[in-house]
Amino acid sequence: MTVLLGFAFTLLALGSCWGLEPDCLDQEPELVFQPSKYGSLWPLPQKVRISEVSFKLSSSSFRITDAKESGAGPSCSLLQEAYRRYYEYIFGDVKRQKVNKGLRAGPAELLELQVWITSPDSECDSYPTVSSDESYELSVDQPVSVLKAPKVWGALHGLETFSQLVYEDEYGAKSINATSVSDFPRFAHRGILLDSSRHFLPIKVILANLETMAMNKFNVFHWHIVDDPSFPYLSRTFPDLSRKGAYHPYTHVYTPADVKMVIEFARLRGIRVVPEFDTPGHTQSWGKGQPDLLTPCYAGSKPSGTFGPVNPILNSTYNFMQQFFKEISTVFPDAYVHLGGDEVDFTCWKSNPDIQKFMEQQGFGQDYRKLESFYIQKLLDIVTTTNKGYIIWQEVFDNGVKLNPDTLIHVWKGNQEKYQSEMANITSAGYQTLLSSPWYLNRISYGQDWPGYYRADPQDFKGTEKQKNLVIGGEACLWGEYVDATNLTPRLWPRASAVAERLWSAKEVTDISDAYSRLSVHRCRLVQRGVPAQPLSPSFCPHEYKGV
Which residues does 1 contact at the CB level (< 8 Å), separation at least 6? Predict the structure, then answer.
C-alpha cells in the first residue's frame, strides 16, 4: 500500500528527552510511521475497501459533474462551489482547461466523478440541522466514479473523502486507486468551540477554520462570541452593547454583515453555527452598554462600585433578555442557541441588600443556587418563546433547574471519572448530552497529546444502551485566554483532528499506531492546502508550509 501514500514519509526517532525533564515520564510510547492500508483517510470511513488497481487523474480531462438522475443540478450553488473547491484541492491552483469532447480515457485514466443526490429534495438551499442526513457512498472506478448521497451534506463529505484518496508520485502526477466507501457519522453533533471575546478573532481566521473543519468532517461551529472581557457582537436592537463593551467599537466587532457571512460560509460546507450568549455569569462586558443589567456589589452597607452577575430580581432584566434573544433568534438560523449558565459567582449577590431581601421574600433562605435557578428558568421560558432549542453547561442541570425534555446538556467539568459519572446522571434523567471535558485544546503540554484526545469516548460510561443513545456527540474547545489570530490555527490543528475521528468513525476504530500513520499524512495534506497545522513529531512534508 506504499503507493497509496505517494511519498516516503520519514520520521526521526521520538522519545529523546533533552535534559531528562520529568515530563518525559508521562510521554506517549514511541509511535513509528508505517504506511496504513487505509492510506491517509481521516476521519476513517465506516466501511472502506481500497484495491491495488490505480487510475491516473489529469487536470486537463478530469471533471466533477452532476449525475443525470441527481436531485441537485447546476442551479445548486452549494455543490457547484464545492466541485470547484475540491478540483483545486486535488490539482492545486492550475488553470482549468477546456475539455476536448472527443477525448477518450487512456487504459487507466479516470475522467469523471459523478455526484448523484438520490432524494428529490437535496436540501441545497437549506441549513444543516442536528438531524441532517450526512451519509454517502463512493465508488471509484474507471472511467467514471460515482458519489451517491441522499442530501448535499453527505455529498460534501464524500468529496472530501474522494480528495483524500488522491495521491501523487515524485513528479507530481496524480493517481487514485479503485475504492468503495460506505460512510456516515457515528455522532450527529461534532463541534469546535472558538472564543472571540478574550481575544477578538478576525473574520478571515474564523472562515479559515471553518474551511479546515470541513476537511475534518466537523459540522458545528460553537461560537462563544461574547464573555467578560469583551462584547464584539454588534446588536441592532442594543448597539451600545458592542459600542461600549467591545475592545474597540469599529475594529473589534462583528457586524450583521460579518455574522451573515460566517453563517453562509459555514452552510456551504455543511456546518451549523451555534452562538453562545452566556448568562448570568461571564457578563461583565454586557454591563458597560446596558445600565442596571448587572448586580451592584456592596462593601458593607455601601456599593463598592463593582458589579457581579446579571441582576435576577429586576423586571427590566427580563424585558431586555426578551428583546435581545428575539433578535438572536432571527440572526442565527440554527434551531439551537447555547445559553451558558456556568461558573456563577454568588459573592456579589450575597453582598447586595436588595437581593438578600428578595431571597427572603421568595423563601430561598441562603441557597443562592435557588436564585440562579429562578433566573435560568425565566430565561429558558423566554428563549422557548423564540422557538429555539437550547444548550446549557452542566451546572444548570446539576443545580436542579427545571428543563424542557429536549434540552441539550454540555459536559465540561472534571477528570475522566467525574465526567463519566456526569454523563451517566444526565442520560439516566432522560436528557441528551454533549461531551467536551477531555477535549480542552487550549491546555497544552510538551510532546504528543493527541492520543489522549483520541482515546476519550463520549459513550464510555456506565449506562444502558438507551442512555448511550442520548449522547449526540461532543466538541473540542479552544478557549481564548492565550489564543488569538497569531496562534489559533496551529494550536487547534491537527490536535482537533483526533477528536474529529473519534466523533465520526466507528467506536472500534482505536488503533493509535494506524491513526498516527494516517494523521501524519493528513496533517501534511492540511499544510499543502495552506493550513499551518503544527507537526506531530520530527518529520517533513513534501509540500511544506510556505508562511503567511
Answer: 35, 36, 37, 39, 50
Q: Give how far the C-alpha of residue 25 lies from the chain's centroid of Cα atoms, to the nearest Å.
A: 32
Cβ-contact 177, 164 below 8 angstroms: no
Other residues' Cβ atoms within 10 Å of the Cβ of residue 269: 25
| Of 78, 57, 169, residue with least CA distance to 126 | 78
- The neighbour count for residue 374, using CB atoms within 10 Å, is 17
Instruction: Say if residues 226 and 220 touch (Cβ distance below 8 Å).
Output: no
Residue 130 to residue 254: CA distance in whole angstroms: 25
Alpha helices in 192-273 (DSSP H): 203-215, 240-245, 256-267
Crossing angle of helices 77-91/152-165, nearest 10°? 10
Q: Report d(CA 268, CA 496) in Å as an integer.
A: 21
C-alpha cell at 356: 438578600
Over range 83-93, report the average pLDDT: 94
- Non-local CB neighbours of 395 within 8 Å, separated by 6+ positions: 341, 342, 343, 344
What pLDDT does 547 receive? Answer: 79
Reported confidence tier of residue 548, pLDDT bands at 50, 70, 90 = low
Which residues, in sequence order, are bridge partners of residue 66? 115
The one catalytic residue among 21, 30, 81, 343: 343
pLDDT, tens only, 297-337? 999 999 999 999 999 999 999 999 999 999 999 999 999 99
Catalytic: 211?
no
Global pTM?
0.94
Q: Pull the grid cell for residue 438.
A: 477531555
**Whole-angstrom Cα distance, residue 176 to residue 40?**
12
Neighbouring C-beta atoms of residue 248, cutoff 10 Å: 11
- How high is the pLDDT of residue 188? 98
| Vertex 200: Cα angle to 288 and 203 (nearest 5) | 125
Q: pLDDT tens for residues 342-357?
A: 999 999 999 999 999 9
Q: Which three cell numbers stand for residue 195?
A: 472564543
